[in-house]
Specification:
This protein has helices at 13-22, 42-52, 63-73, and strands spanning 3-6, 28-31, 55-56. It is an alpha/beta fold and 97 residues long. The chain has one domain (3-73): Purple Acid Phosphatase, chain A, domain 2 (4-Layer Sandwich). It has a three-stranded parallel beta sheet, with no helix packed on it. α1 links the parallel β1 (3-6) and β2.
Amino acid sequence: MKLLIVSDIHGNWPALEAVLGAEPSPDAIAFCGDVVDYGPQPVECLRWLMTSADHIVRGNHDNVPVQDWRTQAKAMTPIVISNAASPNPATKGNTFW
């Protein structure tokens, strides 16, 4: 089994594409945190994460958007990202955030 372990993308979509190009056919993908913060393309990175990763851990930088949103909205309701639309049957319907 070929397991691709990825972490610390920080919104850098070109770097993530380079990693995926170097390892094109993993059997499973584990993401170990920090998909956002710093880089200019967090949406693309989050989209890939939610549709491709089999195992996801939220990193400390992934907390920043949640904390900023809570402060701006003055709400204490946690943000939930659902993987309900995932084409991957192993993660379909799981909630990660």
